[in-house]
User: Which sequence fits this backbone?
């Protein structure tokens, strides 16, 4: 009987299943670390300013702005913007798809030219 205990197959060793679980956890941890390193919003070592827009143009649109360590979230309310102001100029879409902004001539623009 003592000889049978010495010749057990390796597949019945309970420590092998623990080793396999540790390997799986290491792979999961490595995948999570890579995900955090690639995501500009979650990367604690990145000092870049980042703006992320999700669902642009839809009622569920959300804007996430990261400036240094500070992260701000803005959600669309679906309402049309209101406020007081003055017309600043006109924007034209060119045939090539570019947009040209032409400011309106205001009181500052009509001043006499310098000599």
Assistant:
């Amino acid at each position: 009987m003592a000889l049978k205990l010495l010749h057990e197959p390796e597949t019945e060793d309970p420590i092998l299943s623990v080793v396999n679980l540790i390997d799986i956890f290491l792979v999961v941890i490595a995948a999570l670390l890579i995900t955090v390193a690639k995501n500009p919003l979650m990367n604690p070592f990145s000092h870049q300013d980042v703006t992320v827009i999700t669902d642009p143009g839809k009622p569920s649109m959300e804007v996430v702005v990261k400036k240094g360590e500070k992260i701000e979230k803005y959600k669309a309310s679906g309402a049309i913007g209101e406020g007081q102001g003055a017309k600043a100029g006109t924007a034209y879409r060119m045939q090539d798809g570019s947009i040209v902004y032409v400011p309106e001539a205001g009181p500052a623009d009509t001043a006499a030219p310098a000599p």
Observations:
- The two ends are 114 Å apart (CA to CA).
- Helices lie at 2-6, 14-38.
- The chain has two helices and five strands.
